[in-house]
From TrEMBL, chain A:
GO terms for cellular component: cytoplasm. GO terms for molecular function: protein phosphatase binding. InterPro entries: Myotubularin, Myotubularin-like_Pase_dom, PH-GRAM_MTMR6-9, PH-like_dom_sf, Prot-tyrosine_phosphatase-like. Pfam families: Myotub-related, PH-GRAM_MTMR6-like. CDD domains: PTP-MTMR9. Residues 124-502 form the Myotubularin phosphatase domain. PROSITE patterns: PPASE_MYOTUBULARIN (PS51339). This is Myotubularin-related protein 9 isoform X1. One of its GO terms (biological process) is negative regulation of autophagy. Belongs to the protein-tyrosine phosphatase family. Non-receptor class myotubularin subfamily.
UniProtKB/TrEMBL annotation, chain B:
Residues 124-499 form the Myotubularin phosphatase domain. The active site is at residue 336. This is Myotubularin-related protein 6. SUPFAM superfamilies: (Phosphotyrosine protein) phosphatases II, PH domain-like.
């Protein structure tokens, strides 16, 4: 195993500091291929402490005298400090962690070795295939079909094998559409809104280029989408770039739909931040949250300067706009930006959460993440390579998925009864998206996952999360199913910083957690007694 | 009534200040002697008490009518459009008169009649008994006694009659000290911590100037520290910024010189004065009153208003006080300038941190009665009950409530009451509907004969206490369970439910609180049902030990139990108070939100050319 070459030292004595509340741990520190272990002495009662090395975002070492200190900043925003005896040992351990935490190979990553008890390989990987969603769509409308044109990923490397397209468009036409869209991402169905019969579509930008090229098949596809909804339906193309940026994209071969070429469709521009500026916003917010001593004024000005909540507001309002188009105006909506793998997915997935009650259930939300993020080709491997602490030169990192989770959290705060899952699930998804023992968030597309045999050789996060023992952490005890749309307020007075995530390791475990436990108690009390009153009433007989 | 010219105006429009669709409700506006009432076409009523009105503005005439903007002290802002300028002018003038009364006797409390007889009224006033409260704290005792020095308000007009002082402080010492303190407000007991035998005392600033001394005052402070058997030194907290305190020296006032007083530790804590607080709130309201705020507008506005900084300062001061008592076992003397604003804030919040009794509904009332009402916080001036000096108005008590709210957010299980309770109290400090907050000190209240002519708020709140209960409250915490709030900056949040309490579109759409409350209620009811059933079964069993009969019994009882039925259809009934035609959760409507401005783009019909093009395209294919 090549790991052994990277491990420079076997073990060392160390003390671990885990933030203000948890007591320090002492013991023998040990680096393995995937983990950092701290094993307390034989007489100690506490268990082995374990850190997945992939979780380390940045590492800082300091030596003084004959001992050293390593500060590990993790991708889940936790900061750990290790005091290690021996200068050599410190440097060796630091170097080993550095090397092992930044390994890029997917198939040597921990998910390929993780074999938890009680879970079977292959479980839950078939929870959410596109076919399953298609079955639902097919029950509601006949205008769409499941195409396996991308069976071998040759049309579009970032799409799954099967996609849902208008029935009127055949596979050959799709192939030509794919050539007209960046990365082959031709317009596909993202969500069918049964009450109005209209659809939410997503794609990448059309490759109109400076000559304003057109593509008859692409135009036909969008026309068919409108016709499938109802005769005379209108459509909106929601471009997540500014009009100017969309225009500029023509220079590099991209562009946006020409009005004349797509009758019935109207273009709206709602610029959303992406890429490096979004990552920088995340970094600055986390930096601001790390400073406990700052004055009120400084905190507020930092909160303003990092602009994170502005991104939340923009993402939510754009999603609401898309949802409004589909749910209220009876129009079809096509969402795209440039590549169609980031802000596009942010908008389509949030819009579904607003409109579709089934996506607000535990299973439905997992399906939504799987369908609209993982299989839709959000490049997790690139976007989540590093979190907010890394000093490495950023390449493709961007917290788009985190922004999505934050928006969902805001929805949950405004509609505390409407989501079946709680903050716990969102926190878990954040953690696992950045570093996980499960295979779900590995790779950047279905194609890559197939090549790496992720489905057969790793465990699915969903099977891990859906174990009964996890439920109390992940579920919302107050959930009440409701068939209605949830329209959030996007005023700043209503939006709030997601303290549960950004300050999770900084503030002491708040009494609010205790309070949450009490809510659970009240609710479960009620359920057991409310459902089976006869059981308790007949007790005296036993 | 002589101020009312027009009592009814029809076809008035009410605008929502945060809705962007310029949607308005049309209805009829009525002007009564006490309220402005708007009834819209859905028969929904909006009542605005004249005393709540802080500002009325008549804006320039528009095509649709004459706009009338009313800002209320409870942060409601309403925007009417009155079709005829004449009507608007009449209403405007009437409101100007009615919202600013010159005499106490014209306030609502003197005409408010909740249909109670005199003995009920008196009972209401006796609900909160401060003598009882001091007894609960453990005074009088061997170190503290009731002083009759101020029995006739001779020493200090703004103090209550009954004051507790160290047993060894003789009357001449008290009199001497009071002459050395601004407005005669000499050091007296505010809270006695029975376990620690330490005290919170309060007073006003000393008239020390640059060098003046007063032996009696020095003795009184010494007596306070001696009354603490554990710790001989005491803290003197000047809640003002040092600069302000120093400036006061030039006017012959100032602060204690540590060299003159033995065993004191002097400390400034830097809470700004009422004028700074007034303009801070003003700025805050200006910022959050704008619709469609950007992130930088909101946060830079929040920052430049300084409001949260001031809240944090008050909280930090209270924590300092609580720590002095808990950790060092030292008594603390708190003062500011006159000792009725910042001093009230710090003493009451400090006691709230130390003693869990004040975190109950009744205890919180007692706390307000003691540290605010009886010790002469000038409610009438600070709330602008009468047409007076606008410079005396300041949101000092609002800040106190906000600090308490922040505590309830940090300690969700430690308070018996909920946010609605705080909001309701805030409502009534301005409403002048009850006598409690009228006047500026006890002496004035007695002269107004409030107890004979008006009603007390507390019994009404207590009758309604179901609305104000915190379902997560765990009452088991011991009496002296001290709260140790964390005051890092990010724990302070904008209190939307206070400053936007009437802007429904900005609120979360569903209330967790009501749901939990209901569940709790039902759990209790179910438990009771179970007990009833069990006892019935036992009764029958005693008579007839036949299993089949018991089964029958269960069958017969089950459908009769109304609570079970309600619990089954509970979800449909209470959780979905929705209009199915609209198919959205109540209060959640795309038309009410910012993103809806883009809806105009949706609803704009396609221009003619495009639709033609569309038609052509369809024909050609």
């Amino acid at each position: 195993m090549e790991f052994s070459e990277l491990i420079r030292t076997g073990r060392a004595q160390a003390k671990l500091l885990r933030g203000p509340e948890a007591p320090p741990l002492r013991g023998t520190l040990c680096v393995t291929g995937h983990h950092l272990l701290l094993s307390p002495g034989p007489q100690a009662t506490s268990d082995l402490w374990l850190l997945l090395l992939r979780r380390v975002d940045s590492i800082e070492k300091r030596v003084s005298g004959d001992s050293g200190t390593i500060t590990l900043r993790c991708k889940d925003l936790r900061v750990l400090q290790l005091d290690i005896e021996g200068v050599e040992a410190t440097l060796d351990i630091a170097r080993s962690i550095e090397a092992l935490s930044s390994l890029e190979s997917v198939i040597t990553s921990f998910p390929f070795f993780y074999r938890p008890k009680g879970l079977r390989l292959g479980d839950a990987w078939h929870f959410h295939p596109p076919e399953r969603y298609y079955k639902r769509v097919a029950r509601e409308t006949n205008a769409w079909r499941l195409s396996e044109v991308n069976e071998d990923f040759s049309l579009c490397p970032s799409y799954p094998r099967a996609v849902i397209v208008p029935r009127a468009v055949d596979d050959d036409a799709l192939a030509r559409c794919a050539r007209f869209r960046q990365g082959g991402r031709f317009p596909v169905l993202s969500y069918h809104h049964a009450p109005s019969g209209t659809v939410l579509l997503r794609s990448s930008q059309p490759l109109t280029g400076p000559q304003k090229r057109r593509c008859a098949e692409d135009e036909e596809l969008l026309r068919a989408a409108l016709a499938g909804a109802r005769p005379g339906a209108r459509g909106f193309i929601l471009d997540t770039r500014s009009a100017q940026a969309a225009k500029q994209a023509r220079v590099t071969g991209g562009g946006t739909e020409a009005k004349a070429a797509y009758p019935g469709w109207k273009r709206l521009h709602r610029p959303l931040e992406r890429g490096w500026p979004l990552q920088e916003s995340f970094v600055r917010l986390v930096e601001a949250c790390g400073d406990l001593e700052q004055s009120m004024d400084r905190w507020l000005s930092q909160l303003e300067a990092c602009h994170w909540l502005a991104h939340v507001k923009e993402a939510l309002s754009t999603a609401c706009l898309a949802a409004q188009g589909v749910g209220r105006e009876g129009a079809c909506v096509l969402v795209h930006g440039a590549e169609g793998t980031d802000s596009t997915l942010l908008v389509t997935s949030l819009a579904q959460l607003i409109l579709d009650p089934s996506s607000r259930t535990m299973a439905g939300f997992q399906e939504l993440v799987e369908r609209e993020w993982i299989q839709a080709g959000h490049p997790f491997q690139l976007r989540c390579a590093h979190s907010a602490f890394s000093h490495a030169r950023p390449k493709h990192e961007a917290p788009t998925f985190l922004l999505f989770l934050d928006c969902v959290w805001q929805l949950g705060r405004q509609f505390p009864l409407s989501l079946e899952f709680g903050e716990g699930l969102l926190l878990a998804l954040f953690e696992h998206a950045y570093a996980s023992p499960f295979g779900t968030f590995l790779c950047s597309s279905e194609k890559e996952r197939c090549l790496c045999e992720v489905r057969t050789r790793t465990h699915s996060l969903w099977s891990g999360l859906n174990q009964p023992k996890e439920q109390r952490k992940l579920r919302n005890p107050l959930y009440v199913p409701s068939p209605l749309a949830i329209w959030p307020s996007v005023e700043l007075q209503t939006l709030r910083l997601w303290q549960g995530l950004f300050l999770r390791w900084i503030r002491p475990p708040e009494p609010s957690e205790v309070a949450w436990e009490k809510v659970w108690q009240i609710v479960t009390d009620k359920k057991t007694e409310g459902c089976e009153p006869t059981v308790s009433a007949s007790e005296p007989r036993l | 009534m002589e101020h009312i010219r027009t009592t009814k105006v029809e076809q008035v429009k009410l605008l929502d200040r945060f809705s962007t669709s310029n949607k308005s409700l049309t209805g009829t506006l009525y002007l009564t002697a006490t309220h402005l009432l708007f009834i819209d076409s859905h028969q929904k009523e909006t009542w605005i008490l004249h005393h709540h009105i802080a500002l009325v503005e008549k804006l320039a005439l528009t095509t649709s009518g004459c706009p009338l903007v009313i800002q209320c002290k409870n942060f409601r802002i309403v925007h009417f459009i009155v079709p005829r300028e004449r009507d608007c002018h009449d209403i405007y003038n009437s409101l100007l008169q009615l919202s600013k009364q010159a005499k106490y006797e014209d306030l609502y409390a003197f005409s408010y009649n909740p249909k109670q007889n005199d003995s009920e009224r008196l009972q209401g006033w006796q609900l909160i008994d401060l003598a009882e409260e001091y007894k609960r704290m453990g005074v009088p005792n061997s170190n503290w006694q009731l002083s009759d020095a101020n029995r006739e308000y001779k020493i200090c007009e703004t103090y209550p009659r009954e004051l507790y002082v160290p047993r060894i402080a003789s009357k001449p010492i008290i009199v001497g000290s009071s002459k050395f303190r601004s407005k005669g407000r000499f050091p007296v007991l505010s809270y006695y911590h029975q376990n620690k035998e330490a005290a919170i005392c309060r007073c006003s600033q000393p008239l020390s100037g640059f060098s003046a001394r007063c032996l009696e005052d020095e003795h009184l402070l010494q007596a306070i520290s001696k009354a603490n058997p554990v710790n001989r030194y005491m803290y003197v907290m000047d809640t003002r910024p040092k600069l302000n305190a120093m400036a006061n020296r030039a006017a012959g006032k100032g602060y204690e010189n540590e060299d003159n007083y033995s065993n004191i530790r002097f400390q400034f804590v830097g809470i700004e004065n009422i004028h700074v607080m007034r303009s801070s709130l003003q700025k805050l309201l200006e910022v959050n009153g704008t619709k469609g705020l950007s992130v930088s507008d909101f946060y830079s506005g929040l920052e430049s208003s300084g409001w949260l900084r001031h809240i944090k300062a008050v909280m930090d001061a209270a924590i300092f006080l609580a720590k002095a008592i808990m950790v060092e076992n030292a008594s603390v003397l708190v003062h500011c300038s006159d000792g009725w604003d910042r001093t009230s804030q710090v003493c009451s919040l400090g006691s709230l941190l130390l003693d869990s009794y004040y975190r109950t509904i009744k205890g919180f009332m007692v706390l307000i009665e003691k540290d605010w009402i009886s010790f002469g916080h000038k409610f009438s001036e600070r709330c602008g009950h009468l047409d007076g000096d606008p410079k005396e108005v300041s949101p000092v008590f609002t800040q106190f409530l906000e600090c308490v709210w922040h505590l309830t957010e940090q300690f969700p299980q430690d308070f018996e009451f909920n946010e609605a309770f705080l909001l309701q109290i805030h409502e009534h400090i301005h409403s002048c509907q009850f006598g409690n907050f009228l006047g500026n000190c006890q002496k004035e209240r007695e002269e107004l004969k409030l107890k004979e002519k008006t009603y007390s708020l507390w019994p009404f709140l207590l009758d309604d206490q179901k609305k104000y209960l915190n379902p997560l409250y765990s009452s088991k915490s011991p009496k002296f369970a001290v709260l140790e709030p964390n005051t890092v900056s990010f724990n302070f949040k904008f209190w939307r439910n206070m400053y936007h309490q009437f802007d429904r579109t900005l609120h979360p759409r569903q209330s967790v609180f009501n749901i939990i409350m209901n569940m709790n209620e039902q759990n209790k009811q179910l438990e009771k049902d179970i007990k009833d059933l069990e006892s019935k079964i036992k009764q029958r069993k005693n008579r007839q030990t036949d299993g089949i009969l018991t089964k029958e019994l269960l069958h017969s009882v089950h459908p009769e139990s109304p609570t079970l039925k309600t619990s089954l259809c509970f979800k449909e009934q209470t959780l979905l108070p929705v209009n199915h035609a609209l198919r959205t959760i109540e209060g959640s409507n795309p038309a009410d939100n910012r993103y809806s401005e883009y809806a105009e783009e949706f609803s704009k019909s396609e221009p003619g050319v495009v639709s033609l093009e569309y038609g052509v395209a369809r024909m050609t294919c």
